[in-house]
DNA sequence: ATTTTCCCTTACACCATTTGTAAGTGTTTT
DNA sequence: AAAACACTTACAAATGGTGTAAGGGAAAAT
């Protein structure tokens, strides 16, 4: 079941939330130490974060921004601040939904399900800057366009995406594709890189792969 | 700029919406013929749909459901129905957000931006019930698993998903794969269906395709 | 109960795609 | 100027996709 992390400093409200969510079958984790909240949440790997705004050490707005920059979501803000400007600010910072207290139990649950549904039906794609890559199938996505890379092309791109923005040596790429127990001429790597660059051009992804002479390759961006 | 399709039968409200959105730089398309709305919207390929609920021929709820089954989204419901049960129903049917009229202009725009931001960068997958399908590459997604179907297997599954839960005749499937100007033995369709069923089993998707003897096939769920 | 019809499955051969090798070219470094 | 490194294109072999053929099973018709 989905893991929901709650950032709420009012003890009574927190217990009530925990009760509602656990009755619904969710795994709940409540933040009680209000220092370095974004870091704590990152290590918890939540499926959804319920975030209050008025907190002791940091504003929920700051936390929201920090979570977003770490790619953690979805984030549902649940706060007593019911002014329109606060809602606009929260949404602007990247909150996925903004609800005000007091909130009807069924409404809260419906909004939570809504966010979970939207995120969990999505494939686990790895962000490559200007594109996304499915590590299972080597399917490359850019906007509404997509294409499937061949095994070799996909293996190379995956290695570069996973190590972005670090340089990946030719030796590491060769081992990634062919292992160490069979001899493949080094030129095969060059050829496959040329094929990959050509394929990337089909999605207008020019100059994504940068050559560092004598060291290896890296993904730009 | 993003294309927003509006389904609103009140002319004054519709004009006001168009004005607000165009001033913001959006491309707007307003539905004025209220028959077969889901089909019209599908051909428009919108980036977002603003949907009223009280409409002349069909309920916005039905349209929402139909759009969702065709993988069209996001959907922002904007309605005068402000009862909690209506909101819950809309979210249950798959609406991505539910706002009631009258709605503050800045709030509406913020919610629209919120949805657009969340969907751009995501591949356009069609919902198949227990799985999702990328119509470009025939990549099949189920949870964190994915695999790429062959052209024939993908073409068959796509047809079934797009017509779900309707029956698709063998003739329609054959025409989808081979057109009408070349003769392919009917058994080729049977063979490819067997191959597709075997591939689906690799993702534990048993019994997804139902045979209706003498009529055709349909997707379960 | 038997026959006919429809659907499914497996194997085979042909076609399309992927990929390592070979050879040539261009650029950068020594 | 020569050497080293990187890139590109073409070719042939290997691999995967797919229609056809043949056989079998189940449901419907007689």
Automatic annotation (TrEMBL), chains A, B:
It comes from the Bacteria. GO terms for molecular function: phosphorelay response regulator activity; transcription cis-regulatory region binding. Residues 123-221 bind DNA. The modification 4-aspartylphosphate is found at residue 52. InterPro entries: CheY-like_superfamily, OmpR/PhoB-type_DNA-bd, Sig_transdc_resp-reg_C-effctor, Sig_transdc_resp-reg_receiver, WalR-like, WH-like_DNA-bd_sf. Residues 3-116 form the Response regulatory domain. GO terms for biological process: regulation of DNA-templated transcription. One of its GO terms (cellular component) is cytosol. Keywords: DNA-binding, Phosphoprotein, Transcription, Transcription regulation, Two-component regulatory system. Residues 123-221 form the OmpR/PhoB-type domain. It holds the Pfam family Response_reg. PROSITE patterns: OMPR_PHOB, RESPONSE_REGULATORY. This is DNA-binding response regulator, OmpR family, contains REC and winged-helix (WHTH) domain. It comes from Melghirimyces algeriensis. The lineage of its organism: Bacteria, Bacillati, Bacillota, Bacilli, Bacillales.
């Amino acid at each position: 079941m989905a893991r929901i992390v709650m950032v709420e400093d009012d003890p009574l409200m927190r217990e009530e939330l925990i009760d509602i969510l656990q009755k619904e079958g969710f795994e709940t984790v409540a933040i009680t130490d209000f220092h370095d909240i974004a870091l704590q949440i990152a290590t918890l790997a939540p499926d959804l974060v319920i975030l209050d705004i008025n907190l002791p050490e940091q504003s929920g707005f700051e936390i929201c921004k920090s979570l977003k920059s770490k790619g953690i979501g979805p984030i549902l803000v649940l706060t007593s601040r019911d002014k329109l400007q606060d809602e606009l600010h929260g949404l602007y910072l990247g909150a996925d939904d903004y609800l005000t207290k007091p909130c009807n139990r069924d409404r809260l649950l419906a909004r939570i399900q809504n966010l979970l549904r939207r995120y969990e039906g999505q494939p686990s794609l790895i962000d490559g800057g200007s594109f996304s890559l499915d590590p299972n199938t080597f399917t490359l996505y850019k906007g509404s366009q997509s294409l499937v890379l061949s095994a070799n092309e996909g293996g190379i791109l995956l290695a570069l995406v996973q190590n972005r923005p670090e340089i990946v040596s030719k030796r590491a790429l060769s081992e990634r594709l062919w292992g160490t127990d069979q001899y493949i001429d080094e030129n095969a790597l060059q050829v496959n890189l040329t094929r990959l660059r050509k394929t990337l051009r089909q999605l207008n992804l020019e100059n994504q792969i940068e050559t560092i002479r004598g060291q290896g390759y890296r993904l730009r961006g």
